[in-house]
Design goal:
Elements: E1 12-19, H1 29-37, H2 50-71, H3 78-93, E2 101-108, H4 115-124, E3 129-134, H5 141-158, E4 164-166, H6 174-188, E5 197-204, H7 208-212, H8 218-236, E6 242-249, H9 262-271, E7 276-281, H10 289-306, E8 310-313, H11 321-332
Parallel strand pairs: 1-2, 1-3, 3-4, 5-6, 5-7, 7-8
Helix pairs in contact: 1-2, 3-11, 4-5, 6-8, 6-11, 9-10
Length: 357
């Protein structure tokens, strides 16, 4: 690697790259689920009962979840992928001479390394400020809000005077849209050119009341991404007959979730004689259980039973160079004057976690 040169007065910016995390082994499944169901932004129960209920639900769900992870190799690859993203992003941000130094660290919400670990590491590097960069392109209280809340609490505990800025969401960020369209285009080109192709964007679901009662911006951001990327797809493939649809997966519990549900949408489209389908993990930028098990195993098996001729899953962005470049553009735009709200505001639209400790 070329030697980096910085001016003597260069500022060091620490970046927290947020994701949910996942169990790296079958033994990690129960602790991961316990952390997940202990999060008040995810699981709404009386606070005094939450530890007990979280343990009960995690214990009941663990055997089934272990089987899912067993089928994808015994654990989630999410930490490995995210740490590689962080390393590539740091190299990319420091590739020029002069200017700021950049240090990029991973902060997982429900598995190591947690936000406190990442902040302690960045403090040891002598950072002058923090930037919160979620790997959730679309905002939600359940993802961006929860991650920012934990990270801000750790900042307040470890370095309360350290400045913090946040990039709360990037659902229509042009370099991200270009990278996503790139992966979709690869799958479109594998279907017969003379036949129509349908694109099914599958997003992780959330309970409907979060959108209707708490004004969570997730559904709106998701539709923003889908519309932006389809505009690009139509421009890149003007000679193809392409239709698109949006559904939601990974529903759990008795509450009503955003719909339509992905399995139901697969059945509906098959009933309408759709035979060429490209599935897009629109709210997932990296491979994990929802892509590797739900999409690649569960939905792939459904597609065979339903009679699809071509059922393709667009590749996740993972460490694709165009995606790393998209993240770099997000960070590069901060000093160029793009409005970046300070934490704890995660959505810049009034839908923010009220609790910041």
């Amino acid at each position: 690697m070329a030697q980096e040169h910085f001016s003597s007065d260069a500022k060091t910016t620490g970046v927290l790259l947020f994701n949910l995390g996942g169990p790296e082994s079958l033994n990690d499944v129960y602790p991961f689920l316990l952390n997940l169901f202990s999060d008040p932004d995810i699981f709404r129960v009386p606070r005094i009962l939450q530890p007990l209920i979280a343990r009960i639900i995690a214990r009941r769900r663990a055997p089934k979840s272990r089987e899912y992870y067993r089928q994808i190799g015994g654990g989630s690859p999410l930490r490995k992928i995210t740490e590689e993203q962080a390393s590539l992003l740091e190299c990319r941000m420091n590739s020029g001479n002069g200017g700021n130094r950049w240090k990029v660290r991973v902060a997982m919400r429900y598995a190591p390394p947690r936000a406190g670990d990442a902040i302690r590491d960045l403090l040891s590097e002598g950072v002058d400020e923090l930037v919160f960069l979620p790997l959730y392109p679309q905002r939600s209280i359940t993802t961006t809000g929860s991650s920012f809340r934990e990270a801000l609490a750790e900042r307040n505990r470890l370095a309360p005077s350290l400045p913090v800025r946040s990039i709360p969401a990037w659902p229509s960020h042009p370099p991200y849209i270009e990278a996503l369209a790139e992966t979709i285009g690869e799958s479109i080109r594998k279907t017969p050119a003379e036949e129509p192709v349908h694109i099914l964007f599958s997003a992780h679901g959330i309970p409907e009341f979060l959108v209707t009662r708490e004004k969570d911006p997730y559904e709106r951001d998701t539709r923003t991404t889908v519309e932006a990327v389809m505009k690009r797809i139509y421009a890149l493939h003007p000679d193809r007959s392409i239709e698109y649809h949006l559904s939601y997966q990974s529903r759990v519990g008795p509450l009503k979730w955003l719909g339509p549900e992905t399995r139901a949408e697969l059945s509906r489209l098959a009933g309408e004689n759709v035979r060429n389908l490209v599935m897009v993990p629109v709210s997932f930028v990296s491979d994990h259980q929802e892509t590797l098990y739900e999409m690649d195993i569960l939905y792939q098996e459904m597609s065979r039973e339903l009679g699809y001729r071509h059922f393709l899953r667009a590749p996740s962005l993972n460490v694709r160079p165009s995606f790393i470049e998209a993240l770099a553009y997000l960070l590069s735009e901060i000093p160029a004057g793009i409005p970046v709200p300070p934490a704890p505001c995660f959505c810049a639209c009034g839908v923010c976690p009220k609790k910041t400790d």
